[in-house]
Structure formats: structure tokens, C-alpha cells
Prior knowledge:
Elements: E1 19-24, E2 28-33, E3 48-52, E4 67-71, E5 76-80
Antiparallel strand pairs: 1-2, 2-3, 3-5, 4-5
Protein name: Flagella cluster protein
InterPro entries: DUF7385
Organism: Halodesulfurarchaeum formicicum
Amino acid sequence: METLDLSDGFSIHDYRHGLKLLRQDGERTLLENRAEYACPACGEPFERLLVTENAVHSFQTPPSGPICLARTGEKLLVLTH
């Protein structure tokens, strides 16, 4: 199982073959993990990935499972399991 590599930042394009775009606007991108990539925070497969460059973000509906956070120099990644 491949883990998302954040050592040089994060680019969705590096993982596009295994991530399905669910929603994208000017502030955030929501993706579904179709390739069972491993979470860079806990090492377990994640279900969804939210990527944003915003300093803050609010969630309307909390996920039912664990939430992991990962930060690159420019992006915040929120991974739900």
C-alpha cells in the first residue's frame, strides 16, 4: 500500500490515477481514495481527502470515523477514515 508522500509538498496530480474528484471549488478539493492509499499521519487507508490552502475550514457534517490532519508548507490535508 502506497502512502501519500508529503516530503516535497503535495500534488493531487501525482496520485490522480487512484483519487476520484468528488468536488472542487476555488478554495478546496474533495477526493475519494480509490486505490487504498495510506494516510501520511497514521499509515491506514483513508476514505476521503480534503485539500485546502485556506488557513481555516469549517465542516458541515462530521465524519463517522477518525480524522487525520497533515500539513505541507502550502496545504492542509484532512483525511477521513
